[in-house]
Amino acid sequence: MANAILFDSTKCIGCRACEGACAEKNGNPYNDSIAAQEKISAHKLTTIQTKGEKYIRRMCMHCLEPACASACPVGALTKTAAGPVTYDPNKCMGCRYCMTACGFGAPAYEWNARLPLLRKCDMCSERQKAGKPTACTEACPNEATMFGEREAMITLARKRMAENPTGYHARIYGLEEAGGTSVLMISDVPVESLGMPANLAGVTLPALTWRALETIPSLVSVGSVLLGGIYWITHRRAEVAKEEGRKS
Amino acid sequence: MTVRSAFTFWKLVFYALCAAGIYSTYLRVTGGLGAVTNLSDQFPWGLWIGFDVLCGVGLAAGGFTLVAAVHIFNLEKYKPVLRPAVLTAFLGYLLVVLGLMFDLGQPQRIWHPLIMWNPHSVMFEVGWCVTLYTTVLFLEFCPAVLEKFRLHTPLRWFHAISVPLMIAGVILSTLHQSSLGSLYLLVPHKLDKLWYTPYMPLFFFTSAVAVGMAMTIFESWHSSKAFGRALEKPILAGLARVLVVVQSTYFAMRLMDLTNRKAWGLLAQSRPETWLFLLELTLIGLPLIFLYQEKVRNNPRALYWSSLLVLFGFITNRMNISLTGIERASGVSYFPKWTEIAVTLFIIALGFSLFRLAVKYLPVFQEPGVEEIGSPRARELRRTIAA
Ligand code: SF4
Ligand code: SF4
Ligand code: SF4
Asked: Global pTM?
């Protein structure tokens, strides 16, 4: 029973209530000039981007198999059973591999802090525990951002599509992308044309590094035996040579 | 220029680099990464990761290749260059750690991966390799210090643990060199198709072995200039022979990989990536033409320049993967701020001067003493030879 967010671009009116609610919930400043920054950053964990007449929402997608969590050397990022990918600021050492790994440009860094931390949407994990929807969902006046169980969100998306087949591009973004995400998106055009990454369909990033990491135990054991064996042979030969040298 | 004025010139350069480096360090500590780097959320890894870490670790690869050659494969011939190679590796790793202290957002938590585990992370593997292998290199270099102070008892302990230590060292660096390539396996969506290949771990490893040899030749040349030592000509020619074989293998694998991935067509596009990629391939391939000639291998100057080409090819490759190949997907353009460059040059300058100091005061280039064996008979033998 993992939760998800559904963003429906056709219903978004660009009011940015979600941005404001997110800032408030996360203790970030919010004003007109910040509203105008259509970019995720350490003080703006979600943003609405204007694409002509349309709007698209950017935030952490809470991947089902998050690249960031697999990248983090200290396990500061975790995919929770409830859906959110959470961050533990007490573990993070600031290597920024998670930022390199994420295909959605979601994690942001406190570049101007002396001891910076990562900032990232955590899908209101604490609110969820208290049985509440995310702050952005609560703020949205037009049902463009919806929250609930992932299955229910998929059903809702399909229902909206079925009720208005001409109004939607018939694909849910996030079913396949990066191995599936807990933020789903629908629109009347492919969301890729609104700036969502197009190169993540059907790729599960963590599997790519795991394939290499998997080989370590055998590399170490076979390697030690092999090197030990070579050592033994080469030095044995030297000893034999020495012995024979002494005899003659 | 006389020898004396040349010497003061380099001294001045050194002090200037230190001054710029220390000033940048001050800015880094007080103002954070934003004050001294051009990094951003879109481009979170820059020069410090691309050069200080990726190149630094690679250039230290001479240590493990020579340990393997001399101790495990018992190629005694290369013993005279073993210690300088181990010293380079040890200093190299210390400087990589120093570089990380600049780059990590929370440098005081550099030890976290040791107790907070995530075996699914390549960075976790990298962290462990850096820690363990730096320790191994320290232990491998210890005998030079102990010999200097004639501490025979601990020397014997080192001798007792040396074989497992060496094997561990070779395995750890194999893992470490290749894991730096594995880091980039996670970013097929960011790294340009010219470079992204599932064989990156293998390529990182192979090129590191080659550059390890090149580095050994490079520093033998420089230290023979600096200390008026005779150059170990036949040894270097032998190393060059191994170098050319490894480098050819690497070059051939790179070309085959391009063919297998059907990536040659990408070169038809005229973009900066193409030119830098071609530059890289040229720098990797060109030294082969020289090094296959025996007269080049036996001519120290020609050999030196060929090794330098290998070094440049290696550095270009690492910079291409970490910077050039990532830039387009990031959507921003990145060029290091002067303070980033200052810190990098500062670290390199530190490396050179530490190496000089160690060579001056410790038995690095001497034939490792017969004393190393530690038996009374050996010491006696040494005295007889000395007399
Ligand atoms: S979108 Fe990025 S930060 Fe969010 S869970 Fe996926 S990989 Fe992690
Ligand atoms: S920056 Fe922090 S959260 Fe991100 S991978 Fe590194 S340690 Fe983990
Ligand atoms: S609150 Fe809803 S309608 Fe307003 S910008 Fe956010 S998603 Fe769009």
From this structure: 0.91
For B84-112, how does the pLDDT look when each residue is reduced to its tens digit (9 = 90+)?
899 999 999 999 999 999 999 999 999 99
Are B194 and B325 in contact by the 8 Å Cβ rule? The answer is: yes
Give me the interface pTM, i.e. the ipTM: 0.91
Q: Do B41 and A107 touch (CB under 8 A)?
A: yes
Place of tokens 């094997």: B167
Q: Among residues A202, A67, A58, A83, which one has the least CA distance to residue A152?
A: A83
* A:B CB pairs within 8 Å: 184
Q: Look at the block and give the residue holding tokens 């390799």.
A: B129
pLDDT of residue B233: 84
CB-ligand 3 contact for A127 (6 Å cutoff) = no
Percent of chain B having pLDDT more than 70? 93
Atom 8 in ligand 1: residue holding the nearest Cα:
A68
Separation CA A230–CA B378 (nearest Å): 26
- Residues 130 to 189 of B: which have CB under 8 A from any A CB? 163, 167-168, 170-171, 174-175, 178-179, 182-183, 185-189
Q: Rounded to whole angstroms, what are the CA distances from A227 to A224, A231, A232, B239?
A: 5, 6, 9, 20
As a whole number of angstroms, the distance between CA B25 and CA B28 comes to 5
Bridge partners for A177 per DSSP: A201
Beta-carbon separation of B122 and A112 below 8 A: no
- Which atom from ligand 3 is nearest to the alpha carbon of A48? 5
Under the phi-then-psi rule, with left for phi > 0, alpha for psi from -120 to 50, and beta for the rest, what region is B132?
alpha
Q: What does the buried/exposed string (b/e) look like for B198-236 if buried means 16 or more CB atoms within 10 Å of the residue's CB?
A: ebbbbbbbbbbbbbbbbbbbbbbbebbeeeeeebbeebb
In 3D space, the residue among B185, B218, B221 whose CA is nearest the CA of residue B204 turns out to be B185
Integer-rounded Cα radius of gyration of chain B: 22
Residue A72 and residue B119 in contact, taking contact as beta carbons nearer than 8 Å: no
Q: Is A58 left (phi over 0), alpha (psi -120 to 50) or beta?
A: beta
A66 lines ligand 1 (CB under 6 A): yes
- Tens of pLDDT, residue by residue over B186-210, are 999 999 999 999 999 999 999 999 9
Q: Supply the Cα-derived Rg of chain A in whole angstroms.
A: 25
Q: Please name the member of B35, B71, B118 whose beta carbon is closest to the beta carbon of A74.
A: B118
For residue B231, CA distances in Å to A34, B64, B71, B304, B307 come to 64, 22, 22, 12, 15
Angle at B90 between CA B87 and CA B94, to 5 degrees: 135
Measure CA A81 to chain center: 15
User: What secondary structure letter does DSSP report for A86?
Assistant: E
C-alpha to C-alpha distance for B138 and B149, rounded to whole angstroms: 17
CA distance A219 to chain B (A): 8
The string of DSSP letters for A22-84 reads HHHHTT----HHHHH--S-BTTBSSEEEEETTEEEEES---BSS-HHHHH-TT--EEE-TTS-
HSE-up of residue B243 (Cα within 13 Å, Cβ side) = 35
